[in-house]
Amino acid sequence: MKLLKLVPDNTNIGFVRVRHIAFALTLLLTILAVAAVGVRGLNMGVDFVGGLMVEAKFASPPPLDKVRTDIDAMNVGEVSLQQFGDPRTVSIRLPLPESKDDGATDKLVRQVQSGVEAKYPGVTFSRYDAVSGKVSGELIQNGILAVLLAIVGIAIFSWFRYEWQFGVSTFVAILHDVLMTLGFFAITRMEFDLNIVAAVLTIVGYSINDKMVIDDRIRENMRKYRKMDMKALIDLSVNETLPRTVMTSVTVMLALGALLLFGGHVLRGFSAAMMLGIIIGTYSSVYVSSSLLITLGLKPEPAERRSGTPAKAERVGDGARP
Amino acid sequence: MLTFPRWKITLILLTLGIGILCAIPSFVPERITQTWPKALQTRVNLGLDLSGGSHLLLEASTDDVTTARLTNMEDQIRTELRRGDPRIAIGDISRRDGKLSFMVRNPAQVDAAVERIRPLTQGAGMTGQRDFDVTVVDSSTIILSPTEAGINASVNSAMEVATEVIRKRIDELGTREPSIVRQGDNRIVVQVPGLQNPKALKDLLGQTAKLEFKLVDYTANPAEVAQRRAPVGSEVLPYPTNPSGVPYIAVKRQVMVSGDELTDATQVYEQQGNLPAVSIRFNSSGGRKFGKVTSENVDRPFAIILDGVVLSAPNINEPILGGTAQISGSFTVESANQLAIALRSGKLPVALKVVEERTVGPQLGADSIRAGIIASVVAASAVAVFMFLSYGRFGMYANLAVVINILVILGVMGILNATLTLPGIAGFVLTIGTAVDANVLIYERIREERRRGRGVVQAVEFGYKEATRTIFEANVTHAIAGGIMLALGSGPVKGFAIVLLIGIATSVFTAVTFTRLVVATWLRRARPSELHI
After folding, report:
1. pTM of the shown model
2. % residues pLDDT > 90 (chain A)
3. A52 in contact with B at a CB cutoff of 8 Å?
4. Best CA proximity match to B202, nearest among A71, A103, A170
5. Chain A residue whose CA is closest to B391
6. Within chain B, which residues score under 70 in pLDDT?
């Protein structure tokens, strides 16, 4: 049986050569993403803005405009409706009642549920969330803090393990991944909730995995080929690790694809965010973070100085052999 | 490198074996595992989003605690200085800015006053810090300002009591396996699986259940009471069901008996009219007090006050000496029962407010589990086929490692008694995707080494050796992200992080150590001259 090889042996793509174009493109896309977040904003779920979310499953796909009018008529504040991928499942979002009475939320939930039920027989309510403004503020704060700390923590690790250039390039690339993902959510208006924060953190984790593998290979090659030009060396390293980069991306995509198709509507946004993040993360590993090392002026000398033990002689000549 | 000593093989297989064994109870119905020994009940808990149920986040107002402390301290100072010997006359005690300040009438007594107050302010925890700082200004005014340590200690103890009271109340509801956990300084998370309508629970937890009996001030002018003005020594309280129509009533400030002296409370029916009511039983000192006051005040009304609201104000027809009393008001059976539970379990030291609530129906939970299992199986199969197509025999080894890895993750979660949530399932599926990464790294490295002309055994050896370092680097950083998620995340983020972290740890073991053992065994037995990888 012939084995499947996604990346042919001895592939040699000039990643570094196109770095200026890649940087420009990346920068442009990142600015667009940030602008999208700034202009359109994120469609924050009740986790982050506070409020009430009731999930309703209708017997048949409901006319959203009519449902909106019906709920508006109940005079319960500004309602927003959103389909959950599955056209029968709709999330109904409302502001929390301002009354100090603890029972007010329950009354509101029941009022909306019975009102909707009267107009659309067969509707079921499977879930509801109520988050006060104070808690939601903390959740968003912790979410941002978690993402930032993760990026900084990883960058510092990378800096301590290798040279500072690796830390910086990793930091920039991951920040790019996060901003692009946020931009995607701003453009698609998909609901941004706590699950998505978990997704973003996972993207950070995955992306860093990718970059570590390439960085590690660059380090190894720096020791092995001391005289090699940095551009050629980085190209070589990225190409050498390319089969693994592609293989792993494919397996993760397969798993996420299964989650997207079969994982149920609650995880749909999560899976979509992750799939996009994997593509962005892989792109930034190949085109951004490693090429950035050249811009940052990485030279082979520090590696030699720091590594202490001289590179093994037998490894030096390795590449020349057929 | 490729030869494993026997003890190492045993250790590897033993570790994996235990992990897999611990995963088994999660697949067996609960009613069967219940009969097993405790050590074998390593079941993975299902989060509320999977099992259905209610999650409530309750918050206590710390201001209430500090206000109560000030009031308490004020009383103590009054008692100490006025009733002690010699009597020290003081002016009004002001409670501005969260501090107590008062003037000592005779400036010569200031030092003596401070001397007598000091002992009242001691004892915030183990460190011996004071609850209050006592300072003298203008040589006659004494100021007591609460210390940070004192406030923290009292909030802390109030929260401890509150958690205990909540536990009692929820237990009374008869729900199964509630989880009640303190979070942060002034919050409590309550999770009740299977609870569909959390309204009753919220009503129950929203009640402070501070019960007081006070005499009605029948001398008060009804017109003034209607304007919420009370005579000296009395206060006006809301009385929504007042038969006179005015929703207020004046009562004496002094508490006759309080709910602290209850031993029991049950829901009963009133003799006349068969209306629901709550019967309470006092402890001996409470019963004595109640008997004394009612004997002295026959034919006068007393007020039954719950959380600052008058429930009813019946007349004392005869002295109540038996140590029991009945509370009536406009109760339904449900609300009377709730009050009985609340009174039985004691009063909350602070009022609690629901600041976050999530309720998931059992149907959605069951749907999510089914979807999660299908997604996991599809994901695992797709990845397995792909790995086999790419690496042949070695791909199958990796697949075996993934299957073992899944079981070991479940086993570890069972041992840790961790909770599997919906995002946890996502973490699971992602782990399946990334678990093969380590094997991909190794195999690609072996391919490379072969291309460079190394011999079969040497290529495998180098592949494992070189890739292991990379795998370590990559996973440590991944674990950093996971650790931060676990530390900072709440709810779904945490559930995801737990699975991710466990997955990282186990996948390194199964993907590197286990497959190396399998590959080494195969190499020794088959002695292949060519690697089909």
Report:
1. 0.75
2. 23
3. no
4. A103
5. A3
6. 1-2, 122-129, 176
ipTM of this predicted complex?
0.81
Say yes or no for a CB contact (<8 Å) between A127 and B361.
yes
B207-227, pLDDT tens digit by residue?
788 888 899 988 888 888 888
The partner residues of B100 in beta bridges, in order of sequence, read B144
A256-282 pLDDT per residue, tens: 999 889 888 777 888 888 899 999 999
Is A250 part of the contact surface with chain B (CB cutoff 8 Å)? Answer: yes
Q: Running DSSP on this structure, what letter comes out for residue A312?
A: P
Long-range contacts made by residues A113-119, C-beta under 8 angstroms, separation at least 24? Answer: A113/A54, A113/A56, A115/A70, A115/A71, A115/A74, A116/A56, A116/A67, A116/A70, A116/A71, A116/A92, A119/A67, A119/A70
Name the one residue in this structure whose structure tokens are 């599926």. Answer: B429
State which residues of chain A have pLDDT below 70.
Answer: 1, 85, 99-103, 300-322
For the four alpha carbons of B412, B418, B421 and B426, in that order, the dihedral sign comes to negative
Counts for chain B of helices (H) and strands (E), in that order: 16, 17
The answer to whether B448 contacts A240, with C-beta atoms less than 8 Å apart, is yes
Q: What residues in A contact B399, CB-CB < 8 Å?
A: none
| A241 neighbors B429 (Cβ within 8 angstroms) | no
Is A196 in CB contact (< 8 Å) with chain B?
Answer: no
**How far from each other are the two terminal CA atoms of chain A, in whole angstroms?**
25
Contacts of residue B489 in chain A, CB cutoff 8 Å? Answer: 142, 146, 194, 197-198
Q: Are B329 and B241 in contact (CB under 8 A)?
A: yes
Measure B377 CA to nearest chain A CA, in Å: 9
